[in-house]
């Protein structure tokens, strides 16, 4: 973790800028924003038309002069100015006024595990544009581990798997730090993409841009598990004719299409385990893997990991909120500092 707990305790608000959703925690007020990281812009005059849920609903349905943009991509802020404007609107005038009152506004933000200096700088600049005089960065894996209540500060191993939209990050933690971690650029978006590609190839069907999530749910919430109906009716547009068409798809084939990106995730877990010191692996066999992030909710993913690794697998409560709640806990001072000198010799 780059920032110390003491520095984090002095922060006034914390931001988790994700590829899919933006979340903001304000000290004393709790989670005040949890909205899609989307903005709709009028291309004629550059004005912001909508942000969050409203903007996301516009995706694929806009006239030529409205563009729906995602200022965060692959876990990194790619359009700093747009990210600032989006955050300002999501926070709202009232909350912005509360923050402006602080004499020396401090912010905390989580960044992906192996974020390069440029990506970290983009996050810092985004928050500086919002008025922050100082920005503390926290590894998203540590924030999420704290948020889901893992005993990160103890001298025993815990394994966390963060299943986000853009990436899956896996880490073994001990004594408040990361012992070993991997970031695989496969997340919920890649799973959605695999479903879209499958329907295009197998059924010559183009899906409306927002219907992939409903499709996953149309597999009757059974996701990767074979329970539920063997087929489902899907509406889309024919690739060749462009006309609306409905097809009955085989849910087993969709499950198969989802399996491909998941193999990369499994490889990442194996790599982390392989390079982990044996003492820590022994701890992990009892404790297992804690899944956090929105994609942890994909039905059957936990069961698949259980079978592949032979380890216990748990899904955190509200997995998508763990990282921001962890930051919040650090801001509020609810985290015990790590005692590095138990003998009191210093
Ligand atoms: N019930 C669900 N079943 C399957 N997938 C889900 C479910 N709910 C959310 N997701 C997926 O979780 C992802 C969003 O997770 P999360 O909010 O953790 O992402 P993020 O923090 O914005 O992304 P990242 O951390 O990668 O930048 C989306 O890709 C979404 O499709
Ligand atoms: Mg995230």
Task: Walk me through the topology.
Blueprint: H1 5-9, E1 13-17, E2 21-26, E3 30-36, E4 39-42, E5 48-51, H2 52-58, E6 66-69, E7 72-73, E8 76-77, H3 80-100, E9 106-111, H4 117-129, E10 134-139, H5 140-147, E11 158-163, E12 168-174, E13 177-184, H6 188-203, E14 205-206, H7 212-218, E15 231-238, E16 244-250, H8 251-274, H9 278-287, E17 289-292, H10 301-309, E18 313-315, H11 322-331
Parallel strand pairs: 1-9, 9-10, 11-17, 17-18
Antiparallel strand pairs: 1-2, 2-3, 4-5, 4-6, 7-8, 11-12, 12-13, 14-15, 15-16
Helix pairs in contact: 3-4, 5-11, 6-8
The structure holds adenosine-5'-triphosphate and magnesium ion (MG).
Please provide a written account of the structure.
Strand 17 (289-292), helix 10 (301-309) and strand 18 (313-315) form a beta-alpha-beta unit. 38% of the residues lie in helices and 26% in strands. Helix 5 crosses helix 11. It has helices spanning 5-9, 52-58, 80-100, 117-129, 140-147, 188-203, 212-218, 251-274, 278-287, 301-309, 322-331; strands at 13-17, 21-26, 30-36, 39-42, 48-51, 66-69, 72-73, 76-77, 106-111, 134-139, 158-163, 168-174, 177-184, 205-206, 231-238, 244-250, 289-292, 313-315. The strands form 5 sheets. It has a 5-stranded mixed β-sheet, sandwiched between helices. Strands 13-12-11-17-18 form a 5-stranded mixed β-sheet, sandwiched between helices. The protein has 346 residues and is of the alpha+beta class. The model has no long low-confidence stretch (mean pLDDT 91). It has 2 domains: 5-144 and 327-331, ATPase, nucleotide binding domain (Nucleotidyltransferase, domain 5, 2-Layer Sandwich), CATH 3.30.420; 155-316, ATPase, nucleotide binding domain (Nucleotidyltransferase, domain 5), CATH 3.30.420.40. The relative contact order is 0.15. The radius of gyration is 21 Å and the shape is flat. Residues 18-21, 75, 164-167, 187-189, 213, 216, 293-295, 297-298, 320 line the site of adenosine-5'-triphosphate (ATP).
């Amino acid at each position: 973790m780059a920032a110390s707990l003491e520095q984090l305790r002095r922060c006034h608000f914390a931001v988790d800028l994700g590829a899919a959703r933006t979340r903001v925690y304000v000290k004393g007020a709790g989670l005040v924003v949890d909205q899609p990281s989307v903005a709709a812009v009028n291309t004629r005059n550059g004005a912001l038309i909508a942000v969050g849920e409203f903007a996301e609903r516009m995706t694929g349905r806009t006239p030529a002069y409205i563009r729906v943009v995602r200022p965060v991509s692959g876990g990194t802020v790619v359009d700093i100015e747009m990210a600032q404007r989006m955050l300002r609107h999501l926070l709202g005038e009232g909350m912005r006024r509360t923050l402006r009152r602080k004499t020396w506004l401090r912010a905390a933000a989580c960044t992906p595990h192996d974020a390069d200096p440029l990506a970290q700088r983009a996050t810092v600049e985004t928050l500086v544009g919002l008025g922050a005089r100082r920005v503390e960065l926290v590894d998203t894996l540590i924030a999420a581990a704290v948020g889901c209540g893992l005993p990160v500060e103890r001298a025993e191993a815990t394994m966390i798997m963060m299943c986000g939209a853009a990436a899956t990050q896996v880490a073994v933690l001990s004594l408040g730090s990361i012992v070993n971690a991997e970031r695989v650029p496969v997340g919920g978006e890649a799973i959605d993409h695999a479903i879209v590609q499958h329907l295009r190839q197998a059924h010559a069907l183009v899906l409306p841009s927002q219907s992939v999530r409903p499709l996953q749910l149309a597999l009757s919430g059974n996701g990767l598990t074979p329970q539920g109906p063997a087929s489902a009716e899907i509406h889309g547009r024919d690739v060749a004719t462009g006309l609306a068409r409905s097809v009955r798809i085989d849910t087993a084939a969709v499950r198969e299409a989802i399996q491909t990106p998941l193999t990369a995730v499994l490889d990442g877990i194996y790599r982390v385990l392989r390079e982990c010191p044996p003492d820590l692996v022994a701890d992990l066999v009892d404790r297992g893997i804690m899944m956090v992030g929105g994609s942890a909710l994909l039905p059957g993913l936990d069961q698949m990991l259980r079978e592949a690794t032979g380890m216990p697998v748990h899904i955190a409560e509200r997995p998508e909120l763990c990282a921001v709640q962890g930051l919040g806990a650090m801001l509020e001072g609810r985290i015990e500092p790590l005692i590095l000198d138990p003998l009191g010799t210093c």
